[in-house]
Amino acid sequence: MDEHLDDILATVRPLDPIELQLLDAQGCVLVDDITVPVSLPPFDNSSMDGYAVRVADVAGASEEYPAALEVVGDVAAGAAEPLHVGPGQAARIMTGAPLPPGAETVVPVEWTDGGLGAGPVTGMRARSLAPEAASGQVQVYRAAEARAHVRARGSDVKEGDRALAAGTVLGPPQISLLAAIGRGTVRVRPRPRVVVLSTGSELVQPGGELAPGQIYDSNSFALTAAARDAGAIAYRVGAVTDDAETLRTTIEDQLVRADLLVTTGGVSVGAYDVVKEALSYVGDEDEPGSGMEFRKLAMQPGKPQGFGSIGPDHTPLLALPGNPVSSYVSFELFVRPAIRTLMGLKDVHRPRARARLTADEPLTSPKGRRQFLRGRYADGAVTPVGGAGSHLVAALAQADALIVVPEDVTAVEPGSEVEVVLLG
Amino acid sequence: MDEHLDDILATVRPLDPIELQLLDAQGCVLVDDITVPVSLPPFDNSSMDGYAVRVADVAGASEEYPAALEVVGDVAAGAAEPLHVGPGQAARIMTGAPLPPGAETVVPVEWTDGGLGAGPVTGMRARSLAPEAASGQVQVYRAAEARAHVRARGSDVKEGDRALAAGTVLGPPQISLLAAIGRGTVRVRPRPRVVVLSTGSELVQPGGELAPGQIYDSNSFALTAAARDAGAIAYRVGAVTDDAETLRTTIEDQLVRADLLVTTGGVSVGAYDVVKEALSYVGDEDEPGSGMEFRKLAMQPGKPQGFGSIGPDHTPLLALPGNPVSSYVSFELFVRPAIRTLMGLKDVHRPRARARLTADEPLTSPKGRRQFLRGRYADGAVTPVGGAGSHLVAALAQADALIVVPEDVTAVEPGSEVEVVLLG
Prior knowledge:
Chains A, B: Residues 195-341 form the MoaB/Mog domain. By secondary structure, chain A is α/β, with parallel strands linked by helices. The first copy, chain A, has 8 helices and 28 strands. The model of chain A has no long low-confidence stretch (mean pLDDT 94).
């Protein structure tokens, strides 16, 4: 199993970078260090709604002995040509507006009479309702130190600083920073396009009618959802009948939109195992790296597995077994890491933990096979749900962890410590 | 702050359910209990590629004394009319194929000569390459108990069982189960459509040129990304200038596609605080529940906040402050829970933890305000990043937690235990 995973991760390479609009890059990995092109804030600005004044003009001001200043106008955020504040003057200033020349500090509006002449106010009246407040006189009731309530140019980041390092995953706060420094687009590894198809002549699309011997196709739905969950753009092709030529044609058709192909079913030792039949000889002997290999792994579920690459671009293809639980567990252990490698993520595996086994009886496991049982994990303990059967979809839907029983262990006693894969 | 959150959560109601295609329902909450309409598997079927036989016919079989049986044909998965297996007969059977009438058990192909007469085989040859293997004779080298390698009808789930409970969030394994029981569509609460717009005449779209006094709009990008991250379908309207009529018109235009509106900026005490100006009087006094309320909360950052509902459908609107850190923190504390309430999720808040403060000097916090500082959390310890300034976007991009300093605490010593909100 480890060899198989190693082979996959040694073959799959991060996708080539692409310049994307900021919001299209959400969840993607930065390719380059990002340098700050312009200091933030780009200019000294007010952190309060208030009055921009000279320090000396408000020195010693109190409610009893307010400083009376002449209001020379408004400085709104975005104001292109700030006023000049001279001795004895004040400019009414809004949060984020540039500190006007001449002004040395900002007094919040709550420390003034707001120009109304009736004691301290709690805020300004809207400009549109009271335009006269942009002129006249203001009483200031408290002194302010130099540069109080002023955010200095470059106090957030400075031009030339490294804003974000290559390899950073872009979540909302990183997108916030990129926008703040003016980046409209950014170079990232794109989300991989994953094409999912299930195989089996017995498969009927959910919602249809089952004839005798038929079952509903669940793998193509489960793995499309799981691929999205891993970060991919996933396309569900649906079920293909067990006919090698049909399967080959379908896969060839899909290559144009696939960075990775995932099939389920048809990889075991039966006479109708169409994936094995259709893909065993697709490789070109003169082309190194092309072709598929089918293996039996020492694991349960998920013993039969295929991996290789097909088509002119050597698109990687993972051929998973068809039992629903086998295909889902195989996805978690092999496909998810492959998708996350394509994305350029460093951390490609699900987190693991040690947990105490809570169970009524020992877990049994076949010798020589690493078993992955479904369980529920909470507070350091894990409880198995359902049995080992690879057709037990209902139990899988209750699980949030896989219990790992190593190859050389055939029984695990209740209370023992086990390794779990947290499905998150 | 708690009152404000309570008011929001008391007003916002889960969205009405909608019947969605299975893959469109990923991440959504089930509205009804789902009952199994047909037992799974729907029929007894083989868990192996092998031969369906009668128990008596292989009793005592060994490599030395194999049982020789007449192969009556193939039973492939999806086979509509299975063969009948009589005494002395075997049907070649594939994994998932129905156990044919007359057969009592399955012997794996590895326990047979596969019809080749040359000892145990490791698998079947493809039907298309070796059609003769569906007839002739097979040597069986091991006995099998009744119903060995047979998955019984209903052994996964039984008709009438509850497959999933109302309130379940649909991840890949739940989608797998729904598909398996034949559900092509499912009734869930849809993802809320969240319209994000920032306000401010100083705002320039990233990628553009900054004139003096201007800054780049980052809030509309950050909150659109954060809304998606919370599970919403988010629409970024971008920056609106500080003009009440323009803002009112823009918001009215957006109502048609909004389950929730989020604005940033213009909610404080300045003379150009357009959101407050435009929305303070939108409510209809005769319509209970309509209208906006603007408050000053005892928190930092995020003191000025607006909340209410607008338009004929009382669409909820959260008006956040405009400083980038204030708006992001406000989103995490107020908008994210609102989005997750609209989705019908039970767990609407970010997880919290206790952590040991790692810092060179005490954290200080204003008395009477609950402070949310940015930090990095790992292994039970949290380290502050950047200062308290609500314009410090670069530090926010390094943070993965908010450090909570309660209202009555003005200093936190290094080594103390603090509460943290994990931003995940």
